Amino acid sequence: MAPHRVRPHARPRSFCACLRPLGILLLVLGASAAPLRPVLATTSAPEPREITVYVYHRPPFFTATPESQGGALVEMSQIALERAGLKPRLVTSTFTEILATFRAGAPFACTPGVYRTPERETFARFVGPLYGPLPPVIVVRRTDAGLAASARSLDSLLAGGLRVVLGDGYWYGTWLAQALERTGTSPTRTRDENTLMLRSIVDGTHDISFMSHEEAAHLLRTHPDLGTNLTLRPVPGNPTGESRYLMLAKGVDAATAARIDTALRELAETPRYRELVRSLRHE
User: Fold this and answer.
1) For residue 261, what are the contacts with CB-CB under 8 A and spacing of at least 6?
2) What does the pLDDT look like over 51-61, one tens digit per residue?
3) Torsion of CA 71, 109, 260, 270, to 10 degrees
4) Which class for 71: exposed (0-12), middle (13-18), buried (19 or more C-beta within 10 A)?
5) Are the beta carbons of 132 and 245 closer than 8 angstroms?
6) How far apart are CA 92 and CA 56, in angstroms?
7) Which helix (H) or strand (E) holds 217?
8) CA distance 18 to 118
9) What's the pLDDT tens digit per position in 173-207?
10) Numbers of helices and strands, H then E, in the chain
11) Which of 85, 86, 108, 111 has its CA nearest to residue 97?
């Protein structure tokens, strides 16, 4: 009879041998997950794009020194730009320099509170409006206030021989531009800041100027010599104040401009915007 073969008992697997398949599985999973790490990193939110905000000194709308910038229209602009996903960087300049920068093709920049004119639309985009101002006023010596108040129309006021002084390079509104053209009036244009321009009325060099109500009231309130000698009168015909816009460089693309425009409309419905409007009007 053939001998019966007895199969040897299987050796029990060691603990390390049992873990080997698990280790292989973890290596496979780790290798397949590794390429996902850099992909996930690239999906994080990008840094907001920086936009240069040029600010010049014209209180109470905006204040600008070499060290700081502020004012109601500056704050409105900052809020809207941040809502549009941008990072404002404020830079102090003069209005003349700002216009020259935009004409030369500023790449990605804006400036707040600018009147919209056909000439400026040739080198800039406009979004907004940012702020709808009070009606403009005449600034005149108190001794001549009756003369200004008695004029039946703006044309008759300008035709009366009064010496008009205006800021050089500034737009005062279609209502004044058309009246100056109709009457053939040639105002003196000055690059002096507005306090000095108004002092030229106090000393008799000029007779009247035109200003936004907010600005003129601020200057007479904060400069005692101006408040003592000058007064404000309505413009004959009561023209409405022209809206102030956020002026964008042509380097700001249309999609970004649309986002800013939407942010401005949303801002106008907020309590903070209404507070800033009241502060401008000294309410």
Assistant:
1) 127, 128
2) 999 999 999 99
3) -10
4) buried
5) no
6) 6
7) helix 213-222
8) 83
9) 999 999 999 999 999 999 998 999 999 999 999 99
10) 12, 12
11) 111
